[in-house]
Specification:
single chain; mainly alpha; 7 helices; about 75% helix; elongated
C-alpha cells in the first residue's frame, strides 16, 4: 500500500516538474528571442543563462511546494480508482502515533484490505502523465525563435549577434 502511494506521489511530482520545466523553457526562449532581436550590443548572452537558471530554480521550488502530502495522494488514488477510501484510511491508521478510535483488529483488517487492493491497483490509471498547457507556448516560442534565427542568419549570412536585428 505504501509503495502504491509513493509511486503515485512520484508521478504527481513528474507531472509538476514537466509543467515547471515548460515554464523555465519558455523563459529561456523569451530571453533568446530578445537576444536575437536586440543583439549583444544591448542584451548580453549571460542574461539568457541567468534567466534560465532563475526560472529553473523557481520551478523546482514551486514543484516542491505543490507536491501533495502522502495522505492527499492516497485520497486522489482512492477517488480516481473508485476504492472507497480504502488506501487513504489505511494510510491514516498507519500514522505514528496511532490515532485513537477503532480497535487494533479493525485497523489490521483495513491494512489487509488496502494491501490486497493496492496489489491490483494501476498507478498509471490513478495518476496519468499529462502534457502541461505551457508546452504549447514553448512550441510557439520555438517557432518564433527559429524564424528569427533564420531571418538574422539569412540577412547577414553569418552568426554575428552584435548589431540589433532592426539595424
Amino acid at each position: 500500500m505504501l509503495i502504491l502511494v509513493s509511486r503515485a506521489r512520484r508521478r504527481f511530482l513528474h507531472n509538476e516538474l514537466m509543467a515547471q520545466g515548460a515554464h523555465a523553457a519558455s523563459a529561456a526562449l523569451m530571453a533568446f528571442i530578445l537576444l536575437l532581436l536586440l543583439g549583444t550590443q544591448i542584451l548580453d548572452w549571460r542574461w539568457i543563462v541567468l534567466i534560465t537558471a532563475l526560472a529553473a530554480a523557481v520551478g523546482l521550488y514551486r514543484a516542491r511546494k505543490r507536491l501533495p502530502s502522502p495522505y492527499a495522494v492516497a485520497q486522489a488514488v482512492d477517488h480516481r480508482l473508485g476504492l472507497a477510501d480504502t488506501i487513504s484510511t489505511a494510510l491514516y491508521f498507519n500514522q505514528e502515533p496511532a490515532p485513537s478510535g477503532p480497535s487494533p483488529e479493525i485497523r489490521e483488517l483495513q491494512m489487509e484490505q488496502a494491501g490486497r487492493m493496492s496489489e491490483t491497483a494501476d498507478v498509471r490509471a490513478a495518476v496519468p502523465y499529462t502534457v502541461p498547457r505551457a508546452v504549447y507556448l514553448v512550441g510557439a516560442l520555438m517557432v518564433i525563435a527559429g524564424s528569427l534565427f533564420a531571418l538574422r542568419y539569412g540577412l547577414s549570412s553569418r552568426l554575428d549577434l552584435k548589431p540589433t536585428l532592426a539595424s
